Amino acid sequence: xxxxxxxxxxxxxxxxxxxxxxxxxxxxxxxxLYQSIQENPELDTxxxxxxxxxxxxxxxxxxxIEGAPSQKIIGGLINALKKNKRLNLFAGILQDFQDVxxxxxxxxxxxxxxxxDIDEATKTNIQELLNNQYGSKLNLExxxxxxxxxxxxxxxxxxxxxxxxxxxxxxxxxxxxxxx
Length: 180
Prior knowledge:
Helices cover 61% and strands 13% of the residues. With 180 residues, it is of the alpha+beta class. It has two domains: 3-103, Peroxidase, domain 1, CATH 1.10.520; 107-167, no CATH class. The chain has a four-stranded mixed beta sheet with strand order 2-1-3-4. The radius of gyration is 20 Å and the shape is elongated.
């Protein structure tokens, strides 16, 4: 079974384990943990390494979640992953859990990619614009891709809106080549 399929199954099980009133705290903790793992390459490497013992991985993760509102639920997940020797999936499960929760709540995932980091006011403006256009049930994920040169791309479901400078330059170049 592929890691992506396994992490999705664990994410669904994590969703099913939590009570409805615990979901918001669990979501906040999952987002915080996932961001911490992404910002700390050493931790990410340690969790994915087959050379690191599961007991060490589990004890490090337990220390990290200490005092978190959803410590009991995430601790149960860590223990299940340790028992099944699948702690390498932890970050993927956290990411998939967010997707599962938003999907169950009726949100549609939208990915906004910009050439440079944008401030919160711009993110809010983009959110409002897309909510007006596509409805208020959008879960926006912002990414950076410097190859866009400028502008942005937005992917909502199977629809893509490409407002990047790289695409405009490419279209212009193709038009000029066609005229020659």
